[in-house]
Amino acid sequence: MSGSTQPSGGPTKGVLGWIEFRLPIFSFLNSSVGYAYPAPKNLSYWWNFGSLAGVALVIQILTGIVLAMHYIPTAAEAFGSVERIMRDVNYGWLLRYMHANGASMFFAVVYLHIFRGLYYGSYKYPRELLWWIGLVIFILMIATAFMGYVLPWGQMSFWAATVITNLFSAIPLVGTAIVTWFWGDFSVGDALLRRLFSLHYLLPFVIAAMAIIHLWALHQHKSNNPLGIDMKGPQDQLSFHPYYTAKDLFGLGIYLIIFAALVFYVPNSLSEPVNYVPANPLQTPPHIVPEWYLLPFYAILRAVPDKLGGVIAMAGALVVLFAVPWLDTSKVRSARFRPIFKWLFWVFVVDAIVLGIVGAHPPGGAYVPIGQIATAYYFLHFLVLMPVIGKLESPLPLPDSIATAVLAKGKR
Amino acid sequence: MRTLVRSAGVAALAAALFAAALPASPAEDTAPLKTPQWSFTGVMGGFDTAALQRGFQVFDNVCAACHSLSFVAYRNLVDIGLPEAKAKEVAAAKMVTDGPNDQGEMFQRPAILADRFVPPFANENAARYAMNGAYPPDLSLIVKAREGGPDYVYSLLTGFADAPHDVTLAAGMNYNPYFPGHQIAMPPPLAEGVLDYADGTKATVDQMAKDVTQFLEWAAEPKLGERKRMGLGVMLFLLVLTGMFYAVKRAVWRDVH
Ligand code: HEM
User: Fold this and answer.
1) B220 C-alpha to center of ligand 1: Å?
2) Cβ distance B114 to B84 under 8 Å?
3) What would the pLDDT profile of A53-103 be if each residue is shown by its tens digit?
4) Among the four residues A234, B38, B70, B236, which has the most C-beta atoms within 10 Å?
């Protein structure tokens, strides 16, 4: 079967034709995710995580909207209202466990999605803006998840809110004033909880808007692929539907199995038990830790002994990602053809995991120097190794086209 | 693709080795927990109604003297198999403040099914005053709020012992190696003979500790049984669905090369 795409014309007759004539939605869908949208024929399962992130966002929004119907954003009632959701609201336990574990699933797929991009050089020309928009989504997710975590108003919610808002006090001169302004009060309490709830409701819709722009940019130059070379014609392509719709659906099935296993069998395994203790401003928990998906950044924050320095390092860890399209000096996209960078990539993956482990433990003993070395390596990877290796390394020869590479592989 | 998966495996292994080589966190000086068999753990696990009812008896006779259980209502007792009349009786034994009435006054009335468990003390200050400054926490979520969950609560309840020679207990404190710091303000609550089980089971300390722990697990996670039952159906459905998706994917991609 040839994978060439069919004309994007929509229906012309009947009710659908009537609609199409006034609102060309069918041809739009066809050219976005249908027969008329071409994708490289060699995409691997690493290309499933984008659509899964979209599903994760929809699940968060749907469960979140229903939770918000029952949740009470006041310091006195928040904790109790979440317990009421768990006990008295029909399937409230299901909604809440889906929402809480859904956030973890969302981050898991987005991390895989980002690492996929780093391995295959998906951030390079002409996809720099696409990469940027993705990073904006990631930062918005971090903010959203932090705010959501505060809402149940358990001990960890309260103390995470305290630690994170206090970071802004590191800003010289105006820091304390800014923190008071955030709090809307002189301490973490009702006023802060309400504004975090309002923003937690808002930001996912901003994320949804960003995701649409992300897709818009994606569709301009289409997907990158494991070979990192451009599509040169119909022999390199498959139409999105039915090939990638079918493949994405299979991926979705796997995703839902893992998600259901978490929700139904170990729904509290990723969260801290202390958060089932109601917030108590007079009692600090022995160690304050964020959710797993923020641990690497928490480790970077704590690696610098100075508060302002830590905040700058943590922000820098995100900001440096925006510069990656220019820090990577190699002309070759895919790490498959980059013998040295390929290994550096995996060392970086280990470094990120090490940072996560360090972030989970109270600072002390060996964790302090390990966290500092891992933080230094994080920046070294992007700021030094990426530009230098890109220049020094001699990449393997690239195949002429996707089609020839795929055929050669098929013959073997 | 295959090399990518292999490299990912190597990276995960390297990180795991690193994690294993690191020292455990300090501050965890508590004894390793006992791990009894629970009916409610595992994929098909669920509560044992008889144990829940015995556990309620322990809670009501012993723990309720000091601890509140404020997220559980008397009506919930029907869910552990108590007849409604019995649950009403349990509720009616406690008095709650209600009102204001027509004259604008608050009044006392017996609790009803819709009321939450009536706490033993009016507020935290009253509890601390009565308990020498210590505060018996609310037990509704205690199992979910502690590392180790039911194993921790069971170990704590059965872990009281005489203090070793090198430990000097502060006034009013009791030795318990499972509690952080090993000194707990709660006196050993369970002892042989504090109650006779209505169902004739022998009320040993171990039995009572197991039963009340299961009761507290239920109090913290009342929808556990429903959750696991639904989970089984959902998992089976998803496995079949995913199998079908896979077949479709194979069929669609058959001619691609
Ligand atoms: C980007 C998408 C979202 C992420 C990553 C996210 C993340 C989170 C997290 C981590 C929590 C704390 C979970 C817990 O321990 O209870 C939470 C709670 C909550 N979220 Fe979201 N959320 C998202 C979208 C939404 C939306 C769209 C709404 C409402 C329209 C919403 C409403 C709520 C409510 C009411 C709670 C508190 C109830 C609870 O704790 O379960 N969320 N969220």
Assistant:
1) 21
2) no
3) 999 999 999 999 999 999 999 999 999 999 999 999 999 999 999 999 999
4) B38
Atom number, ligand 1, closest to the C-alpha of residue A275: 15
Burial code (b: 16+ CB inside 10 Å, e: under 16) for A130-166 equals bbbbbbbbbbbbbbbbbbbbbbbbbbbbbbbbbbbbb
Q: Quick one: pLDDT at residue B27?
A: 47
Residue B45, SS3?
coil
Nearest atom of ligand 1 to the alpha carbon of A154: 15
CB contact under 8 A, B256 and A268: no
| A152: region left, alpha or beta (phi > 0 left; psi from -120 to 50 alpha) | alpha
pLDDT at A139: 98
Q: What is the secondary structure of A346-370 as a DSSP string?
A: HHHHHHHHHHHHHHHS-S-TTHHHH
Question: DSSP strand E in A150-267: where?
Answer: 237-239
pLDDT at B16 over 70: no
Region for A304 from its dihedrals, namely left if φ exceeds 0, alpha if ψ lies in -120 to 50, beta otherwise:
beta
Structural domain boundaries in chain B: 23-72+116-222, 223-257
The beta-carbon neighbor of B144 closest among A253, A256, A273 is: A273
Distance, CA of B124 to CA of B139 (rounded, Å): 14
> Which DSSP symbol is given to A320?
H
**Which residues in chain A have Cβ-Cβ distances shorter than 8 Å to B252?**
242-243, 246
How far, in Å, CA of B226 to CA of B232, rounded?
A: 10
Residue A220: Cβ within 10 Å count: 11
Residue showing tokens 């430990």: B167
How many residues in chain B? 257
Strand pairing partners for B107?
Answer: B98
Quick one: how far is CA A166 from the chain centroid?
25
Does the domain spanning B23-72+116-222 belong to CATH 1.10.760.10? yes
pTM, two decimal places: 0.93
Contact A273 B7 (CB under 8 A): no
Query: CB neighbours of A391 closer than 8 A, spacing ≥ 6?
Result: A329, A330
Whether the CA torsion B55, B61, B62, B66 is positive or negative: it is positive
Q: Could you give all domains of chain A from N- to C-terminal order, each with its CATH number?
A: 43-222+238-284 (1.20.810.10), 289-400 (1.10.287.980)
Angle in degrees, 0-180, between the axes of helices A92-120 and A245-265, rounded to the nearest 10: 130
Task: Please choose from A196, A200, A202, A295 the residue to mutate so as to test ligand 1's pocket, defined by most ligand atoms within 8 A of CB.
Answer: A200
Q: Which one of A55, A83, A258, A276 would you mutate to disrupt binding with B, by most B Cβ within 10 Å of its Cβ?
A: A276
The atom of ligand 1 lying closest to the CA of A149 is 12
Tokens linked to A37: 């949208």
Confidence of residue B4 (pLDDT cuts 50, 70, 90): low
